[in-house]
Amino acid sequence: MNRSIFTVAACLALSCCSRAPSSPPTPETSEADVPHATLPAGRAVQGASLYQVSMELTDQDGQALGLDAFAGHPVIISMFYGSCPFACPTLISDVKRIIDKLDQTTRKDVRVLLVSFDPERDTPAAMKELAERHRTDQSLFRFARSSEADVRKLAAVLGIRYKKLDNGAINHSTVITVLDRRGMPRYRMDGLKGPPDGAVSALERVDSPIARAWGLLTGG
For residues 200 and 47, which has the higher predicted lDDT (pLDDT)? Predict the structure, then answer.
């Protein structure tokens, strides 16, 4: 399974990210070339734990970690970039709305990982400022960056498409994914400002007493 997920991710990574041409837009220009357009989501890799994906992340506190640092918790994972003018602030608000609707037990246990499309500009200091500006609970939220190659790999696995433009903007799809304690995807929400109920139900389900007990038995 580990080899399978890496093979699929490597293939998908070639198509999930591209750079816009330097020529000016024309009437025939696609949605992907319009400054800061929202791209449709792609197909995520199914049936494998995300923690099989090897990534070196650095969070807003400058701490190094891997995806498997979140094992044992229900997780909300998505992707962003700090200078995004609309979609990413809305995405962060959507995640906060999900957390606000969780029961108290799950809210304490959940973790949020938001990985940047733009590791060059999203330094730990920039991500720290972003986390504070959006008043996120930093005991739950990790804003993180990785290498360009690892960003492409993660985007492919999550089914997130993005395209870097010459003006520094990044067109991207917006996808929120819920992971269980073993890193298995259990729910996916595409787009912005959607009802949080599905994600809330998924998080509370994977954090139920039965799920927690099973995790202790299986080490997940």
Answer: 200
Measured distance CA(207)–CA(68) in Å, rounded: 17
Average pLDDT over residues 179-184: 94
Tally Cβ neighbours within 10 Å of residue 146. Answer: 19
- The CATH number of 2-13+40-218 is 3.40.30.10
- The Cα 166–Cα 151 span in angstroms is 19
Closest CA to 77 of 206, 8, 174, 211: 174
Q: What is the pTM of this model?
A: 0.80
The pair of three-digit structure tokens given for residue 36, joined into one six-digit string: 């800061």
What H or E segment, with its residue span, contains residue 138?
Answer: none
Strand partners, 179: 75, 185
pLDDT for the residue numbered 207: 79
DSSP string for residues in 169-209? -EEE--EEEEE-TTS-EEEEEESSS--SHHHHHHHHHHTSH
Whether pLDDT at 76 is above 90: yes
